């Protein structure tokens, strides 16, 4: 059975708020992501973002003009499809109507979607939504799309298109190596990297490719040696968590000054510190926002309030907006009935802290902006804020709207 976690002070405050409102209904949503093991620190960061948004929503009255309060349950997925499915069953047994997930990887999220599909078919009137904030396999909103699943993060193809657009204007990138975790997302990051880099820059040479076990490599020196022997100047890698920080460490120890192209590792704990510790290498990544980004007053205000409340740095607008979009859909539907809420989420335009975003109805893919940025030394101009106690922060390279990055879809949505 999955471990049901002890609530953080923030999540506990949310529950206390709910418990004191006897005249109000309670809408339960469950957080299912890694809270232990090699990626437990990542899961805790994601949980704190979601819990903050839930608590803030409750402080504003919840949903349906104060009639509904939110209650956040939390479960440790242990980065396992089996554990996640057990957690799903525990969550629905406790009355959860929505699952917030994404940090366990696309294969685990796919298993949760399948569990929701089965449950919803067998239990009409007790349906459950899957709200996916971080697993970015395009298949989840493509061939494997589900009416019950909504993705609040740009998918792999969208992110790689943003990076490829930047690489098109970066002639010093000539020889690229592909090193990725051996699971669905890692293989897709490599595949889309090949396709979209080649379209953007037909002159780029792909000089090697390798996959490695996720979360199990302790020393990346042999992989870095192979990259060096191939003569690469850059690496397309979907690594995250300790797999990214250890790769950066090994590269620096080998004296390599490689450029790494990644999806979200810059926001993961320890990544900036790993770059700053050596002063070598460059990590270019893409997200809906990065700390210190100019011209983002709404995110800046949110980040300040979040830090004051949690004592932690704010990293991810999309995780914060996920429960907020859910409440907006409940308000739009005028109901907590899951089918009605799902229909309200379809084509919902939401004024997020990073600007208006839209949940595309045909495949349930959120269209939100993406900013390509590089970890670099603070210079007071292009890099304004140091991160993780270092003199390194984030330099904006390029920004694209969700519509600019939108891809076609093979989704053939089956609606109830």
Automatic annotation (TrEMBL):
It holds the Pfam family Peripla_BP_6. Residues 26-366 form the Leucine-binding protein domain. InterPro entries: BCAA_transport, Leu-bd, Peripla_BP_I. It comes from the Bacteria. Residues 1-23 form the signal peptide. Keywords: Signal. Belongs to the leucine-binding protein family. This is Branched-chain amino acid ABC transporter substrate-binding protein.
């Amino acid at each position: 059975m999955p471990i049901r976690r002890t609530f953080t002070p923030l999540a506990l405050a949310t529950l206390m708020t709910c418990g004191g409102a006897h005249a109000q209904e309670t809408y339960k949503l469950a957080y299912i992501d890694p809270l232990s093991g090699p990626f437990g620190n990542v899961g805790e960061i994601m949980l704190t973002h979601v819990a903050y948004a839930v608590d803030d929503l409750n402080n504003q009255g919840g949903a349906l003009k104060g009639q509904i309060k939110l209650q956040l349950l939390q479960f440790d997925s242990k980065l396992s499809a089996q554990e996640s499915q057990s957690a799903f069953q525990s969550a629905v047994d406790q009355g959860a109507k929505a699952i917030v997930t994404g940090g366990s990887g696309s294969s685990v999220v796919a298993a949760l979607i399948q569990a929701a599909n089965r449950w919803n078919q067998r239990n009409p009137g007790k349906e459950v939504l899957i709200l996916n904030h971080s697993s970015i396999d395009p298949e989840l909103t493509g061939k494997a799309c589900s009416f019950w699943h909504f993705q609040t993060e740009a998918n792999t193809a969208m992110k790689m298109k943003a990076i490829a657009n930047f690489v098109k204007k970066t002639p010093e990138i000539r020889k690229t190596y592909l090193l990725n975790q051996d699971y669905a997302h890692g293989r897709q990051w490599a595949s889309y990297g090949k396709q979209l880099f080649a379209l953007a820059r037909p002159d780029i040479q792909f000089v090697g490719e390798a996959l490695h076990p996720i979360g199990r490599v302790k020393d990346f020196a042999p992989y870095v040696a192979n990259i060096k022997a191939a003569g690469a100047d850059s690496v397309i890698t979907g690594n995250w968590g300790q797999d990214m920080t250890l790769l950066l460490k090994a590269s620096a120890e080998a004296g390599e000054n490689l450029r790494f192209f990644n999806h979200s590792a810059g926001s993961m704990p320890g990544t900036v510190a790993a770059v700053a510790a050596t002063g070598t290498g460059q990590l270019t990544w893409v997200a809906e926002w990065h700390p210190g980004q100019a011209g983002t007053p709404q995110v800046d205000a949110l980040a300040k309030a979040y830090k004051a409340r949690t004592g932690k740095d704010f990293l991810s607008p999309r995780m914060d907006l996920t429960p907020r979009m859910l409440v907006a859909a409940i308000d739009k539907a005028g109901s907590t009935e899951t089918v009605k809420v799902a229909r309200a989420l379809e084509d919902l335009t939401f004024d997020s802290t990073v600007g208006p975003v839209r949940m595309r109805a045909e495949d349930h893919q959120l269209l939100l902006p993406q900013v390509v940025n590089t970890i670099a030394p603070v210079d007071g101009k292009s890099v304004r804020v140091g991160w993780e106690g270092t003199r390194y922060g984030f330099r904006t390279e390029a920004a694209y709207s969700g519509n600019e990055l939108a891809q076609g879809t093979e989704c053939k949505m089956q609606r109830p």
